[in-house]
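Milestone 3.1: sequence recovery, worked example.
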C-alpha cells in the first residue's frame, strides 16, 4: 500500500523501512527523482505512476 499522507509516508519510512530521514538522504533521493532519465526513476514511474512521482517531489 502506498502511504497517502506525508505523516503516513514518514512513519512508513522511519519505522517500517528503518531509514533515517537525514538532509543528505533526502537530497540524494530528490536528485534521483528529478532526473527523468535515471533508470531508478523510470522504474518508480512504471510502478507508481507520474502523479505519485510528482507528489514525492513536491
Amino acid at each position: 500500500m502506498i502511504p497517502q499522507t506525508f505523516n503516513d509516508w514518514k512513519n512508513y519510512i522511519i519505522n517500517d523501512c528503518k531509514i533515517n530521514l537525514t538532509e543528505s538522504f533526502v537530497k540524494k533521493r530528490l536528485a534521483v527523482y528529478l532526473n527523468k532519465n535515471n533508470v531508478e526513476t523510470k522504474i518508480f514511474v512504471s510502478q507508481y505512476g507520474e502523479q505519485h512521482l510528482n507528489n514525492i517531489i513536491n
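The chain has a mean pLDDT of 92. The chain is about 70% helix and 0% strand.
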